[in-house]
């Protein structure tokens, strides 16, 4: 069984800076200002380079978009559940909803802001002045979710659960009600592919994850069953296949997917070994 290491936020603070594949002078200056601010506050900063990919479909066909590399998207989302991470970008940045899709279609892209929403503070800096004026101490950017509960939809890995919409106001009761109306109640929901997500009773996996500073029960995850839903489940870096209606897998808040037990387990079909 793959190891899923223990975590938890504790007092770990980091800054992840996502920079375009080819920085211009202004973007380079922005990045350096953020790095200097982090160093002054004794916070470690890490720079990740985006990659330009031309998309197909719609009015943006043929236009290059700056995308997170698959391994960076995976690593970032896992880290958001183990540390307090401030995510900064110096250009528009996007994540693939379907990592196996070639060519990449515009409708399959999720903005970096939406990808980290509810899990980490995010800011895009367009000018060096924007970065210089950003004087808030980074450690003050991490207020916990009010009235936190593990049934809250913000706990879900939303980029896996809903591959169609972006939920940008789940802190409001109106949006929470709209989410319940669309997908069902707290312990059992149907995702955008009509697969059933049930909160697992048997907690296993060994992880202690956290969201916005709030620790989740050790091993907390969902049992995801195909039922009458779609055949393929996609993360930022993997595609899983449910051969029949009884197939299932375990999905964790940090996007980790594990095959279920026995003959009814889903299997990873991309990337192929």
Provide a short characterization of the protein structure.
This protein has helices at residues 25-40, 70-80, 112-116, 128-133, 158-161, 173-183; strands spanning 13-19, 44-49, 51-56, 64-67, 84-89, 94-96, 104-105, 109-111, 122-124, 188-190, 196-199, 210-211, 214-215, 222-225, 232-234, 239-241, 248-251, 257-259, 267-270. By secondary structure, it is an alpha+beta fold.
Describe this structure as you would to a colleague.
The protein is α+β, with helices and mostly antiparallel strands. The protein has two domains: 13-141, Rossmann fold, CATH 3.40.50; 153-270, no CATH class. It has helices spanning 25-40, 70-80, 112-116, 128-133, 158-161, 173-183, and strands at residues 13-19, 44-49, 51-56, 64-67, 84-89, 94-96, 104-105, 109-111, 122-124, 188-190, 196-199, 210-211, 214-215, 222-225, 232-234, 239-241, 248-251, 257-259, 267-270. It has a five-stranded antiparallel β-sheet. It has a four-stranded parallel β-sheet with strand order 2-1-5-9, sandwiched between helices. It has a three-stranded mixed β-sheet with strand order 4-3-7, with no helix packed on it. The longest helix is centred in the first third of the chain and has 16 residues, at 25-40. It is globular, with a radius of gyration of 19 Å. The protein starts with 12 loop residues before the first strand and ends with a strand. Residues 1-7 have low confidence and may be disordered.
């Amino acid at each position: 069984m793959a190891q899923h290491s223990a975590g938890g936020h504790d007092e770990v603070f980091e800054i992840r800076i996502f920079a375009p594949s080819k920085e211009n002078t202004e973007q380079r200056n922005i990045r350096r200002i953020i790095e200097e601010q982090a160093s002054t506050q004794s916070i470690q900063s890490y720079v990740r380079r985006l990659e330009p990919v031309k998309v197909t479909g719609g009015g943006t066909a043929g236009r290059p978009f700056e995308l997170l590399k698959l391994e960076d998207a995976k690593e970032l989302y896992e880290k958001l559940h183990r540390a307090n991470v401030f995510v900064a970008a110096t250009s528009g940045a996007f994540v693939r909803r379907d990592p196996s899709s070639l060519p990449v279609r515009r409708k399959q892209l999720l903005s970096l802001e939406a990808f980290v929403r509810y899990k980490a503070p995010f800011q895009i800096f367009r000018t060096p002045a924007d970065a210089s004026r950003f004087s808030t101490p980074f450690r003050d950017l991490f207020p916990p979710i009010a009235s936190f509960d593990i049934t809250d939809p913000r706990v879900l890995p939303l980029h896996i659960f809903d591959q169609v919409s972006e939920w940008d106001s789940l802190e409001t009761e109106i949006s929470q009600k709209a989410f319940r109306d669309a997908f069902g109640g707290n312990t059992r929901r149907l995702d955008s592919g009509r697969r059933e997500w049930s909160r697992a009773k048997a907690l296993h996996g060994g992880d202690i994850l956290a969201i916005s500073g709030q620790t989740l029960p050790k091993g907390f995850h969902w049992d995801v069953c195909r039922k009458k839903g779609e055949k393929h489940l996609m993360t930022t870096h993997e595609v899983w296949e449910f051969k029949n209606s009884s197939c299932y897998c375990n999905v964790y808040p940090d996007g980790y997917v594990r095959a279920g037990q026995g003959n009814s387990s889903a299997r990873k079909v991309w990337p192929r070994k």
